[in-house]
Write a structure and sequence with these properties.
The chain is built from 18 helices and no strands. By secondary structure, the chain is mainly α. The chain has a single domain, classed as Amino acid/polyamine transporter I (Up-down Bundle). Helix 6 packs antiparallel against helix 15. It is globular, with a radius of gyration of 21 Å.
Length: about 425
């Protein structure tokens, strides 16, 4: 008698979903949000609610499409191949463009360990070196990159966890309260404009639906894992942001490219700064390597569906998508140069706003798929409510995006659409 692979339960699935969201934002968002102040606590609460609404929608889609591996799987049946292409392509663009934010966070910490200054030119060089170093490791195949990522997680999170535990003994409520809103704008306006960078922390909420095939009793456990993972990630991000703003003045935190190292120095003394910088830099670098692997594999799947040129679908014998990842790294190098700003937190914010806006466009298609249904799977009352809630959440996120970023994202979507319509009559051969 043979049995299939052992499936995971709701608790482990919850941690899988949460881990996919706790990444570079954990290390750099406190500096970005410190420019607004402690009022961003309210943005974390609202962002968590919006993420739960979207997570519930994806959990429902996972029930209807248990083997989904791409946005096209649930979008095409309801909205057609053209919208499936657009959503899949925008999701893919957002996934690898987001890797730039991880590179910014990683080098922001690693720069502390280097003997030269952290000027813009050096920061650009450091980010580009990290991008191509992770490309080289990915060429070795999935196993080496998985080992590298695991090593970085172990070495990277333990010292940071120590700060999260011991930090409350150094928390100064008066310091936190004094920097509640440092912008001079109404609290509501600050909360709205903070939603887009805050939501970067929740990108990955859809992964609960993607792993439905390996979860026991997915009809019950995927929704639990998705909602539980989102809430867990939201709590971790909220408490880390509040903690750091109550230890270091907001203006110092906002100017730092390595906020956890800055806080460690305040708590334990100068010796702790390089230790925490190395730990956080390693964790972010491991995350970069893992997400670059995901970018290569998702590009290959899109090419196999005829959504990208066939070269993106070419796989080496060791399982790496070498050519597709090569073009991704070229594009990431260009983005690193185009988004360069005087400080790390500003560059990080520009990239995450761009990525969140692109990925929300893909989320809109998910909400519409639930709302409209298909002839084979008509939408019931629950599906329509979940789809509507997802669309409302997406609407708030779109409104919160900076106007320039929103216009730029719409231009990208339009160019992608025009390119697809121009070549749709001659799609690449599928395999």
């Amino acid at each position: 008698m043979t049995t299939g692979p052992k499936k995971i339960g709701p608790l482990l699935a919850t941690f899988v979903v949460a881990n996919n969201m706790i990444g570079s934002g954990f290390f750099l968002l406190p500096a970005t949000l410190a420019r607004s102040g402690g009022v961003t606590l309210l943005a974390w609460l609202l962002g968590t609610v919006l993420a739960v609404a979207l997570g519930a929608a994806f959990a429902r889609l996972a029930r209807d499409y248990p083997n989904l591996t791409s946005p096209d799987d649930y979008i095409r049946p309801a909205l057609g191949r053209d919208i499936g292409f657009l959503a899949t392509t925008l999701y893919w663009l957002a996934s690898w463009a987001g890797n730039n934010a991880i590179a910014v966070a990683a080098f922001g910490y690693l720069a502390i360990l280097l003997p030269f200054g952290d000027d813009q030119g050096m920061r650009l060089l450091g980010q580009v070196v990290l991008i191509w170093l992770m490309f080289a490791i990915n060429l070795m195949g999935p196993r080496p990159i998985a080992r590298f990522q695991s090593l970085c997680v172990v070495l990277g999170l333990l010292p940071v966890a120590a700060i999260m535990t011991a930090g409350w003994g150094h928390f100064d409520f008066d310091l936190y309260r004094s920097a509640w809103n440092v912008t001079g704008k109404p609290d509501a306006a600050v909360v709205l404009t903070s939603l887009s960078p805050v939501f970067w922390a929740f990108v990955g909420l859809e992964t609960g639906a993607m792993v439905a095939g390996v979860v026991r009793d997915p009809d019950r456990n995927v929704p639990r894992a998705t909602i539980g993972g989102i809430v867990l990630a939201g709590v971790v991000y909220l408490f880390s942001s509040v903690l750091m703003m109550g230890i270091v003045p907001a203006e110092q935190l906002a100017a730092s490219g390595a906020p956890f190292a800055l806080v460690a120095g305040e708590m334990f003394g100068p010796w702790a700064i390089p230790v925490i910088a190395l730990a956080a830099g390693l964790k972010a670098t491991g995350t970069l390597g893992g997400w670059m692997q995901v970018s290569g594999e998702s590009g290959a799947r899109a090419a196999h569906r005829g959504f990208l040129p066939a070269i993106f679908g070419r796989m080496r014998a060791n399982g790496s998508a070498a050519w597709g990842l090569f073009f991704v790294c070229l594009a990431m190098t260009v983005i690193a140069a185009l988004t360069l700003t005087p400080d790390v937190a500003s560059q990080f914010e520009v990239i995450v706003n761009m990525v969140v806006t692109l990925i929300v466009m893909a989320y809109i298609a998910a909400g519409l798929s639930l709302l409209l249904g298909t002839p084979a799977k008509p939408s019931g009352r629950r599906e329509k409510l979940l789809g509507l809630a997802a669309l409302v959440a997406c609407g708030l996120l779109v409104v919160s995006a900076p106007v320039k970023i929103l216009i730029g994202s719409l231009v990208v979507a339009a160019l992608v659409w025009v390119a697809w319509r121009a070549f749709a009559s001659h799609p690449p051969a599928q395999r």
